[in-house]
Every structure is written in C-alpha cells, then in structure tokens.
Amino acid sequence: MNNNKIIKDAYLESITNKRCGDKIEELLYIQNKILNAKKIVVATNNKKKFDIINNILISLFKNYDKPLPTIEKLDLPTNSVDLTRFPAINKGLIAVDTSDADIVIARGRLGAPGSGSMLIIMNNKGRCLSASLSPTSLIHKKDIEDAVKDELNEALERIGINIDISI
Amino acid sequence: MNNNKIIKDAYLESITNKRCGDKIEELLYIQNKILNAKKIVVATNNKKKFDIINNILISLFKNYDKPLPTIEKLDLPTNSVDLTRFPAINKGLIAVDTSDADIVIARGRLGAPGSGSMLIIMNNKGRCLSASLSPTSLIHKKDIEDAVKDELNEALERIGINIDISI
Amino acid sequence: MNNNKIIKDAYLESITNKRCGDKIEELLYIQNKILNAKKIVVATNNKKKFDIINNILISLFKNYDKPLPTIEKLDLPTNSVDLTRFPAINKGLIAVDTSDADIVIARGRLGAPGSGSMLIIMNNKGRCLSASLSPTSLIHKKDIEDAVKDELNEALERIGINIDISI
Amino acid sequence: MNNNKIIKDAYLESITNKRCGDKIEELLYIQNKILNAKKIVVATNNKKKFDIINNILISLFKNYDKPLPTIEKLDLPTNSVDLTRFPAINKGLIAVDTSDADIVIARGRLGAPGSGSMLIIMNNKGRCLSASLSPTSLIHKKDIEDAVKDELNEALERIGINIDISI
Predict the structure, then answer these.
(1) Which of B105, C19, D1, D9 could connect to C13 by a Cys-Cys bridge, CB 3.0–4.6 Å?
(2) What integer pLDDT is reported at residue D2 of this predicted model?
C-alpha cells in the first residue's frame, strides 16, 4: 500500500538523520485519508457535541464534493479515560478498538487535570493525523459549542483542509 | 503530598461521573509546579531552538519574580522518536528518564509524518501539564524561531501563565 | 463486526464493575484472529530470529490444518525503539503502521535497560493479543534460538494455542 | 545521578547500533532500586491480593537484610483501566501519578480482553523495571493467591532477586 511506503520512507529518513520536515505527499495522504473516509466515529456520547461535529463534517464533505461517510457516535461511557495520562488520545483508541471506522474524532482532556482539552483525529489503527488544543475552560470563556467548532476547524486547517472552501 | 490529593480527587470525580471541567486548584497546582521548578530540561539538542526557549524562560521567571531554575538542553540525539506514534511526547519522556528535571519541555512532531508539530510541558514523572500545536510547516510560513516562540507562549498562556505580565 | 461487540461488552462490564475475568468467547476470538491470519509480519530484521519464528509458524498452521499466511520480516532497522519506555511494544507498532499485516509478532526489550525481553503478538490495530517474557540474558543462559522458540511457544500456549497439537 | 547516566549510556549504544544486550550495571541498578525502596504502593484495592504481595515483600526485605519500606495499597477503584490497551501498565501509572512511591507494583489484564494477566514493577516515574505474565484464567486453574504469588516471584527472579534466598 502507498500509505505504508510513505511512512516507511519517513522512518528511514529519521533513522538516517536526513529528515527535514513534513513532505507534501505525507500531507496529501492525510488529507485524502480524511476526505475519502467511509465511516467516521465521533468518540463522545454527548449528543450536543456530536451534533456540532456532525454538522461541520456534513458541510465539509459537501464543500469538497465528496460522498458523505457514515458518521456515528460512540455509544459507550468514556469518562474513565480521565484516569489515564492522555485522556483524549485514550478516548480515541476506545473508538478505534470498538468500531470499524476509517477515521475517529475524539475530544477530551489533554493531560493532567487542569491541562485543558484536546481534539484529535486518528486513522483506523489509532495513529494521530491531526489535533487541536483549547485552553483550560477556566481561562477561555467560550461556550462548549463554539469551543468544539473552533477545535475541529483548527485541527483540519493545520493540515490544509478548510471547512468553508467557498470563502 | 497536596498534588497527589488533587489528582486523586479528580480521578474520583471522573469514576463517579461527577467531573465538570478543570478546577482552579488544579490550574494553580500546574502553574506553581512550573514557576517553582529548580531544574528544567529542554528536550532538543538543537542549539538555536534551545536558545529561544532559554531566553523566554529567563524573562518568564524574572517577570514572575521567581528564582531562575537551572535550564539545560538534552545532550542526546532524539530523531529516533519519529518512529513512534507520538514523537514529541516520546522525546519528552527521554528527557524525563535521563535527567532529574522538575519540568521537561519537548518539541517534535505531533503524530504521523505530515501532522505538524507539538510543544509539550511535562512534570518529572512524564505527565502532560500543557502543550501547543503548530500547523505542518508546509502550511505555516513562520521561521523556526517565531514558531518555537509562539508555541511556548501559547502552551503557557492556555494554563494562565503570561510570559510578558507587564503588558 | 463480532469482534467490536466482544470488546464493547467487555468494556461495559468493566465500567459497571461486573467484570469477572476473561471469557471463553474472548479467548476464541483471539485464537481465531491468529489462526486465520492472511499476513503476519515479524518485527525483526534479524534473519536468524525471523527464521526461527517463521518455522514455528509453518508448523503451527499445518498442525491446525489452516492455510499458511504470508509471513514477512520487517525490513526496517528498529534499534531506535530502545529509547522508548516499552521497546517491544513500540517495535510492534512500527510493523503495524508500515504494513497491512493482520498479525504482528515483535520481540525486544521489555522496559528499562536491564529488564529482559518481551515477545508480543498484536492485531492489525496494535492491540496486544498475547505476549511472553524472558529473564534478562545475564540470568538465563539459553542461546537466542531456544529463547525465541520458547517465547513464541509460551505466548501461544497461554491463550490456548499449542504449537504441537499432535502431542 | 548514576541512574540517569546508565540510561543515557544505554540509549547511546542503541542509537549507534552498538547495543548487545542487558549489562550487569543495569541489572544491579534495577535490583538496588527495588531493594532500597522507602515506599512501595501496590496498585490494587483488593485486600486479599494486597495481603499476598505484602507478605512476600516482608519476607523479601528480611531475607536481604534490608529495612522494610512502607507498603501501601492504592485506595482508588481501578477497573476503568480495562478500557485502555494495556490495563496493567495503566493501573501502575495511576499509582505513580497519585502517590510518592519509589516502587509501584500493579497487576491487571495484559492487553485485549481474553489476553490473561500481567504483574508489573515500575519506578517512581512509571518506567518498567520488571514484569511477569499469567495465562488467561480460562486455561490455568490456579487459585488467585497462588497466581499472584507466582507472578511476583517470577517478576523478581527474572531480574536476579530471589524471594527465598536461604534456599
């Protein structure tokens, strides 16, 4: 598979000390992986947060003129991940391990209690394709809707995917 | 120790489904942990990146009127972390495991090749206290100096520490 | 998928405090996953270790009257995993991320330098299906061939797969 | 610190491809770390399992003529770790992050549901010093007391610590 070749090449560059930053084919691979997903699982069982993410994804696939994937929410309680060192990452892995999603989107605490939140986009094996962070809610005063929206937006933009490509 | 109590309480809230976001004592604990560090190790062996971070830290401790900790760079090659799933996190853990630092600051790739970079602040056990992300360098066109500076700034601001408190 | 249902059920048992040990359908799932693999990647680029594992696997599939999967070795240097906290686990993840194997078998150091070795069997997403440990080589005096053979044997036996079922 | 030097040297050997197995000073470091612990936390809130481990540790320190450390059990429910990829490891990390123990001993599931159990010995930063595995309980028919006893025994023996040195 092409993907495996890209990762293997990047590994070899790192081992031989020849790596100099992300490459365009790596970025295109990540973009294609997300935009050609057949099934996306959102690792939350909070209806409100799911709806926000779902709506953004519907616009995204429409704007890119791509078939809309199945978008599901994880029907498992996930608060137990807060006992791990990286709650958002481990929330994503629960979705990876209990579904056959191509892409998982998880949102949760970044690290230690007090460390604010992380939204992470993973592939079907649990690898991190992109992410974004929000300050601790004690500092930012956004409502949860805006926070989640901005996070998904930012996680996509930093890898060159723009939710609203018409603008 | 007070810290252990804070984390234990947060765990119990999560298990019993009573957690509702970060608490002020958790944030203060993180801030104090960083601002009272005796030794900070910066997990890079790139002289230029180290100097940028070192200079910001010197201003920070001066502005907060705190004694300047020992600030050292890790004298180990770290490119091998790029073969792990979370390179920046694993770079930080190398510094945690080979030093007696109170605080470790690491910068590296966030996840898969192409996923942009992460700066992470860890405690002496390898727990994540804060972090920040940059878009893949294919997208942002900042020079490395500005990128590192903005990342450290943001990682501190999102937990309520402002580098330039006089402004 | 059936598998996802098994894992989801196990998760729900754990969250609701009703879990009481491994279940027969979980064990059968793991056994079937291994015995019906189409492609196995052995995460070593040491020819000798690969040959030992390859030979055991050939006997195994023959004894169970199952079609022999493609068995490949990872053609990447992996010594860099020794800088991570769990070298054998991270060696396995390199194979997971650079191949389309159903099953990955990795062997490497268990943890800190001096902690002896681990052989681990993972699925295509990087989940651990079984493993075995050897004492540090300073203590056991087996040659490497016997050590690897015993480890693979033990990793399979502890989940109810017997290499030599005729005996 | 001596320890950091040992780990740094091991890392450099691995990076430069000169590593050839565990070294005697690494083993001695691990042994000393365990036998000179001031505080050991056993990551279980099961009274019976704690008592077994506590009793073995009391004999151990007596036989080695070492001062008995404080030995405590973790007073936190830990069943939520079963939702992570490596439950025993994550159970240990909960003890590392909520206590000031020198040494943590955790026992839990190795990996996926059905994969049997692992006992792990960690240092104060969460690094793995040793471990041992048991087959899934569907296969071994030991009672829990004997299983835990054998596991702790084996985890110590494989790094050259013998519970009953008089024999």
Answers:
(1) C19
(2) 66
